[in-house]
Amino acid sequence: MMVNVNGHLTLPVPLGRGLRQGDPISPILFNLALEPLIRAVNDSQRIQGFLPPSLSLPTIRGPLYGPSSFQPIKVLAYADDLLIFLCNAADFAEVQRSIQHYNQASNAKMNFDKTVAFSISGIPHLHWLPALASYGITKWHDRCSDEPLTYLGYPLMQSTVHRRLFQGRLIAKITRACDIYKQRNLSVRGRATVLNTLILATLSHVLSVSWISLQTLQVIRRICREFLLFRVFPPVSFNILQLPLKKGSLGILDPPSQQQALQFRWLTPLIQQHHHPTIVFQWIGAHLASIAPVVLYDHRLPFLTFDFLFDSATVFSALNNTSDLPTAIPLSYSLSLPLSAVVQWTSEFSLQEQKSFDTVLVQDAFELVVGLSCLRPKTLPSDRPNLTVGRTRLCLPNLPACEQRLQGSGALDSFCKYLIADALDIGSERITPKYFRTHRQKKLLQSIPTRSPVHTKSTMLWSFFWKLKIPLAIRTPWYRLLQNKFPCAATIHKVVSDLCNSSCRLCTPRLITEHVDHFFFLCPPKRLVWEQIWLHFFGHPMITHEVYKAIHLLIFPHQRLSLILNESIIACTILGIWKAHWRFIFDEVPFDPIRVFQNILSLVGPFRSNALSSLV
């Protein structure tokens, strides 16, 4: 075999039986090698495997629905990892015989040292231990184990102790990663990239399958905020940091919204396969139908925020907006609305009493009079013989639309579609995971004051700022300036009045307030620096308004030579003044305009060299 390297074939390489580590054909060969064993276990009539229980729910009298028979699950495989389901000791013995035959035929050997047996229900089964030990399997896991079992990176949490231990380890892992990257000189943009792509990568893997409590996610959010705003004071609101870059933010992932979107991403293919015979689809369908407060024309609806779908304001808005609605609302949907959304409450009912009716439907309290086309209150409890109270809401199992609730509908009901119009993709009319991101961004924008730079500065300005070719050391201070969170004396005094006064220390003994503009170019020593920069690079005396536009509006003046970008000159000047100012504050190094000007020229030097080398 010869290898093609950059268009040139290498010398012939003799082929053996092994593969190099990392060879991309390895997973395919694993699948082919394990296929005989998997088929032997699946096709064996003597192995019962795992047969799922009935779909009857504890809150409903009788089964909600169910096919005549289920196919048992016997084995699941991922590369060389096998998950074999056993019902009794006879299953275990038959599986061992299949493994022995496979070992003899393939010259392979099953590694029982890494094999772990666990109870699906979490209930301890001590009678399994002797049979497992006879084959060298000594690891057993159930809800009494000290820690959760991890399979393919996902924890199998079977008790509260397991969940607490796993979530505690996850928090510790993220905290440790943040502490490591805090020590590196990263800009806010660099920290955001590290956080989204490296630190939260582990969290993203877990969130797609495992459930993590909101309290734990809030702790993780706080850790992420502390990492981003490390040594940044006054801090930028974390709500702003979660917005996209074009809004003047960093696009930080929100763990709770990420959990919703990731789990919705993996559940959507299952709940959209209409009339699908798989166990997972039928279980999910039964569960969603049992907890939904309205008839489900689409099984994806419960994954959207409850307030967005079923609160009274949304329903009333939909009913009052007749321009985009059909002339007749389906009767089944009208009767399935929450009772609290269609009644007019008086002042004698408290808000808590009103919310208590969110779990009661219109059809629970009223009946339709067909001849008069009106609703009549129900008076006798016997009108609802099949009504049972669940943990959080009422369930009606014998609805005419029961089959439709379970199997879904190819097209959304028009009224239901109006309620979730913002969540639907225009082309496919499918609810996509990006809904959670856009819905979250809308809420964030509503919570941010209108005077914030997020609203007052244009998206073009923010997009241009992130593309500037400037030193990384000045990107964070300049970003804080644009966000009105720059640490000048006036701002710090406003936040913590005991820390310092609002006067400029360079202008002492005169009491002049140090605001942002005074910090950078209105203070006399710093103004001298700008005057020298303007004459050196732009060839004319400094104009204060031009400096203001360059710093705040990113409108840069024209220069005599075009070798160096204007943005690089302004950024290096800001950086030089920034460093000299804090050396004066903390180290008591005098602010010398001549020395600061020379330091700025040295900062501009690499940009000049890069420009000259690009011309060669």
UniProtKB/TrEMBL annotation:
Residues 1-156 form the Reverse transcriptase domain. PROSITE patterns: RT_POL. It comes from the Eukaryota. InterPro entries: DNA/RNA_pol_sf, RT_dom, RVT-Znf. This is Reverse transcriptase domain-containing protein. It comes from Rhizopus oryzae (Mucormycosis agent). The lineage of its organism: Eukaryota, Fungi, Fungi incertae sedis, Mucoromycota, Mucoromycotina.
